[in-house]
Amino acid sequence: MRWVARVVAIGMVSLLTGCFLKQIDLVEEGIVSLAVRHARDVAMSAVSAYQEGEHFLISGAIWQKKATRPFSGWVHVSVVLNNGEVFEESCDRVFPKPGPRRQVSMDTLQASFFDVTLPKIPPPDSVIRVVGSAQAAFCTSQREVYG
């Protein structure tokens, strides 16, 4: 009976530890820097870059200027090493979804929120480039520019 209790206790501790995975703000810690580019018709705010366990998370708010409805478009994230080489990149579709609206100002009520997960943690001194667009051919053109 004690063996079963120990196994259950170890399982509970493991489960609770996994639920409280610590996010490390890599920008605030000075490990990486962000380069957020605002397109002519799209703006972003509250962009952050975190390490969570073995993954790298980039999130923020994005909206189309003079929009009448929530943003739908694309976000391209690239991790660029200090030698100019692209370490990792992703171009993700953004759909309107609720998010932490307290982080954005009242003029961005039509914002959508994005979360991009990359499988690798960037090395120190990397630059995280984040660009958004409402245009369909955006992902292809970004790969040509940065890839």
Topology:
Elements: H1 2-19, E1 23-25, E2 32-37, E3 42-52, E4 55-64, E5 73-80, E6 86-94, E7 112-118, E8 126-133, H2 138-146
Parallel strand pairs: 2-8
Antiparallel strand pairs: 1-3, 3-4, 4-7, 5-6, 5-8
Question: What is the gist of this entry?
Answer:
The protein has two helices and eight strands; from the N terminus they run H-E-E-E-E-E-E-E-E-H. The chain has helices at residues 2-19, 138-146, and strands at 23-25, 32-37, 42-52, 55-64, 73-80, 86-94, 112-118, 126-133.
Polypeptide structure, described:
By secondary structure, the chain is α+β, with helices and mostly antiparallel strands. The protein has one domain (22-146): Sandwich (Immunoglobulin-like). It is built from 2 helices and 8 strands. The chain has helices at 2-19, 138-146; strands at residues 23-25, 32-37, 42-52, 55-64, 73-80, 86-94, 112-118, 126-133. 25% of the residues are buried. Mean pLDDT is 78; it is low at 7-20 and 101-106.
